[in-house]
Design brief:
Elements lengths: L2 E14 L2 E5 L6 H12 L3 H11 L4 E7 L2 E7 L3 E2 L2 E2 L4 E5 L6 E5 L9 E2 L3 E11 L18 H6 L6 E7 L12 E7 L1
Antiparallel strand pairs: 1-2, 1-9, 1-10, 2-3, 3-4, 4-7, 5-6, 5-8, 8-10, 11-12
Helix pairs in contact: 1-2
Length: 186
């Protein structure tokens, strides 16, 4: 099982089981609603990317990291492990041995790093630990670079953190803007 953390920001992050998006959009935009329905249902990445390419107003990063599909798609200013698509788009397969993934908007200054159990949040970055134990290698070429600000803000085991958990009811978009703050030991 993966562990996900995010830095609050102006873009929107969507986190589902094995699928993560970072989209330049307003939280109440239709593109967010459409993508969330697909992510929540476990859809392959192609339908999600189609929605993003047709309806997103700017940059986006979509990652699916499941046994049936390991892939990243970038558009605009979104970055994945430091790579940016620029004015075009990038669609690449991912190595099955990656233990960390980093999606970044490239715009907001780094802020606190908070845990994310799943759902939709305003974010500037997502950091995902895939749960894959990397195979021993001569180098560390398959490990995504973790930006310094993420390492600096990673909580120690004995710290308590405030996690923002969005409550989503039966309607996938119900609860957007409704947040519950909880204290949880790491």
């Amino acid at each position: 099982m993966s562990e996900v953390a995010y830095s609050p920001g102006q873009w929107v992050a969507l986190a589902g089981e094995g699928t993560w998006l970072l989209v330049e959009a307003d939280p109440d935009a239709r593109v967010v609603e459409r993508c969330w329905r697909l992510v929540r249902s476990g859809s392959p990445l192609d339908p999600v990317v189609e929605v993003l390419l047709r309806h997103a107003r700017g940059g986006a990063c979509a990652v699916r990291y499941r046994p049936d599909e390991r892939r990243v798609v970038l558009t605009g200013d979104a970055r994945f492990a430091g790579v940016r698509a620029g004015t075009g788009w990038l669609d690449e397969p991912l190595d099955p041995d990656l233990d960390e993934l980093f999606l970044d908007s490239g715009w907001d200054p780094p802020g606190p790093v908070l845990p994310l159990l799943g759902g939709v949040v305003g974010a500037s970055a997502l950091h995902v630990r895939t749960g894959v134990a990397p195979r021993p290698r001569s180098g560390d070429e398959h490990r995504a670079t973790v930006p310094k600000h993420v390492e600096e803000h990673r909580p120690r085991e004995d710290e308590q953190v405030v996690s923002a958990i969005q409550s989503l009811g039966g309607d996938p978009m119900a609860g957007i803007g409704t947040w519950t703050a909880t204290r949880a030991p790491l």
